[in-house]
Design a protein that fits this description.
By secondary structure, the chain is an alpha/beta fold. It is built from twelve helices and 16 strands. Helix 4 links the parallel strand 4 and strand 5. The two termini are about 35 Å apart.
Length: about 375
């Protein structure tokens, strides 16, 4: 990879969590071996990375090379087409690692540049990095649904809680993973558009499910609770901290009185149920897609975890492992429910990556195999 494309990637990373529903993009303008323009996109800043870099370069953009982490757009959105700005600036060459999967672009940006006499170089050696940078955006454009990541903190023997880990009993459960691992989780939350849990987790932990990085976001993290009977207490930390960023998924069996109390706090209530009367995870995904939420992170208990895996709602996992063993038959496994009855029927994963978390922990990131 060229040093200039590397610099563009570093710029793009500054937009993570700040661009949704748009992709994170960085751009560098180079003239005679010198960087004369830089830019990265944020949703609040409106302008795309290419335009910002060209504006900084000004007249020096004429005859220069533009390095950008994603194919320049060629359609009218909140801004005009970046291709038009590139042509108007007189750029001689554009280097990018990947085509934009948006059907409104999908190679047409490169075609328009080439037709206008601009040299286009597709640096495919950096394609995987570009795809990883914008996983949710690419997944959404290809499937029409948000990217769903199932996150869990567990012991080496796959347990997420001990039998007496119950805040309602007055005991302190403690954390399975370290402060370093929990800080890493916050980076995942920051890059997610929404986070989901079950009412059992809320009642046990009185969690808030907030993004605690303190970093700018393109929009608030949407906090979602699966709660078929609307048991969410109005005085819970999650409900009482609602700033129109809490969504409760319930069923037609829920109490109208409870609904009114929660809605008075600004909590949004949506009825999404399956034929068996349970809340519909697939319905949640379809709702999020309509609202242009590109990514969902699930942080829940055994039953919800299994439901997400068994139904195929989850696309990938991010499991944090602590160097501990709980043992016992009553400690909760990461995925409960009915499970699979035969080893050959186990849910399988691929594209497995290990992330080291100093000093003695690690995380496993992997994608569910389909079909």
């Amino acid at each position: 990879m060229s040093e200039y494309l590397e610099a563009a990637f570093e710029l793009a990373a500054q937009g993570l969590g700040r661009t949704s529903p748009n992709p994170a993009v960085g751009a560098i303008v180079v003239r005679d071996g010198e960087i004369v323009g830089r830019g990265f996109h944020t949703y609040s800043g409106v302008k795309h990375a290419e335009v910002l870099a060209l504006e900084e370069a000004r007249e020096q953009a004429r005859g220069a090379t533009l390095y950008v982490t994603l194919e320049p757009c060629c359609h009218q959105g909140r801004t005009g087409p970046c291709v038009d700005a590139i042509l108007a600036a007189g750029v001689r060459k554009v280097v990018a690692p990947i085509r934009d999967p948006n059907p409104q672009v999908a190679g047409q940006g490169f075609t328009r540049l080439r037709d206008a006499g601009v040299e286009v170089e597709l640096e495919t050696s950096s394609e995987a990095r570009a795809a990883e940078l914008n996983e949710p955006f690419i997944h959404f454009m290809r499937t029409g649904l948000p990217l769903v990541t199932l996150k869990a903190a567990l012991t080496l023997d796959g347990k997420i809680a001990a039998p007496e880990d119950d805040l309602t009993s007055g005991r302190t459960p403690g954390w399975i993973t370290s402060e370093q691992a929990r800080a890493h989780v916050q980076t995942l939350r920051h890059r997610s558009d929404a986070i989901l849990t079950g009412i059992g987790t809320v009642l046990a932990d009185d969690c808030r499910l907030t993004d605690r990085t303190g970093l700018e976001r393109s929009r608030p993290l949407l906090r979602i609770v699966l709660d078929s009977q609307l048991r969410l207490p109005p005085e819970s930390r999650l409900a009482s901290s609602c700033r129109e960023d809490v969504l409760v998924i319930t069923t037609s069996a829920a109490s109208p009185e409870r609904r009114k109390r929660l809605e008075a706090l600004g909590v949004r209530i949506e009825v999404m149920e399956r034929r068996d009367g349970r809340v519909s995870l697939q319905g949640v995904l379809e709702w999020l897609a309509r609202e242009k939420y590109l990514s969902l992170m699930i942080e829940a208990g055994s039953k919800v975890n299994w439901s997400a895996l068994e139904s195929g709602v989850a696309d990938k996992i991010f499991f944090y492992y602590a160097p501990k063993i709980l043992g016992g038959l009553q400690s909760l496994p990461v995925a409960g429910g009915a499970g699979r009855r035969r080893r050959k029927d186990a849910i399988r994963f691929h594209r497995v990556r290990l992330h080291s978390i100093a000093p003695d922990e690690f995380a496993v990131e992997a994608w569910l195999e389909r079909g």
